Amino acid sequence: LMQSRALSRLTSYYRRALVLPISDNGRSVQLFSLVRSISSTNYPGREGYIRNPNVVQERPEWLIGKLCRDGRIAEARKLFDGLPERDVITWTDLITGYTKFRNMREARELFDRADSRKNVVTWTAMVRGYLEAKQFSAAETLFLEMPERNLVSWNTMMNGYAQSGRIDKALKLFDEMPERNTVSWNTMITALVLRGRMEEATNLFERMPVRDVISETCMVDGLAKNGKVDEARRVFDCMTERNIVSWNAMITGYAHNNRIDEADQLFQVMPERDFASWNTMITGFMRNGETNRACGLFDRMPEKNVISWTTMITGYVENKENEDALKVFSNMLRDGCVKPNVGTYKSILSACSDLATLVEGQQIHQLISKSAHQKNESVTSALINMYSKSGELIDAKKVFDYGLVSQRDVISWNTMVAVYAHHGRGKEAIEMYEEMRKHGLKPS
Length: 444
Known about the structure:
One of its GO terms (biological process) is system development. The structure is a single chain. By secondary structure, the chain is mainly α. The chain has helices at about 1-20, 25-40, 45-50, 60-70, 75-80, 90-100, 105-115, 120-130, 135-145, 150-165, 165-175, 180-195, 200-205, 215-225, 230-240, 245-255, 260-270, 275-285, 290-300, 305-320, 320-335, 340-355, 360-370, 375-390, 395-405, 410-420, 425-440.
């Protein structure tokens, strides 16, 4: 009975400590100290409680990590400072918490204080923090100072080099690694593919001891984007495992290289499809001028997102079928499942401009004025163009004046200059041009 009551009491204290915010009177610090006191008491069954995985928490120090993960860094620090003893996990959790929220000064101060109480995980956390804060020099210096490194340390530094565009440094580090895992190979291959260094990526891929769906999909995507569609297909066909990203990469490769029929053949045998699969095919048909096939596919979609609707509208506009674009936009509003985005408004306003349909354009303007996009630079520019092509220069200027939330809105300025010039309003165009220069903007 004593054991049961003690366990129940300690569990209750743990639960309270985990949810109680730290206040000025330090109640949760006091409660946490009480938990430590109780957990150190020698009562029957104590060891079983502390080691029992079914108990709410095994170690009071876990609270530091939880607070950090929840973004409650100040509370975690207050708790940390009140601990009589701290282990390497506690130090590392708090350091990681500071780096996560880009407080590198506090993180480094703690790191330096940790001394012998830090291990390779602590060092790696600090290096990663510097990399994520884009303090690459500090990350590099600390990495070189590490007394020991593990695979995670090497991969972290290599990934930091790769993401900052220092591919040659990343390659050098890759070559220096005492051992590599799949993450190492995938990181380097992905970095090379993203930089368009396909020959080096291919060489590395061929050297890879064990390939996985990530490396293979990356190569399919990279080869296809660089016009090597047949090579991409060979890699795709050799894959022992494919996911939906792999299928989409191959379909996109065909579509972007104007091989839409081959893309369609692959699309038809896909084991599953997502929005990207359908939208890629619609885009491909539209780019190929096959608006009827695009429309047929769009109608068959089990569900449509804003990209699906916008792709159809944009495709019709690009194929000069503006009336159909307006019909799709009308259906989108009637459907009501998704709201137009910036791309949608730009495309439909372009359709109105080409048709010089002022009434429809004004109605769309009213919709925009009630949306979050009313002061978007691209939308403002599209509205100015629409009014300009309808000969409504006063309304175009009103849109410019209202939509100009920043003197750095270069798009709207250039559009307005072009509008005045197009309508033979040289004086206004020159005045607008000079005004741009006064604000340090570069007319184009």
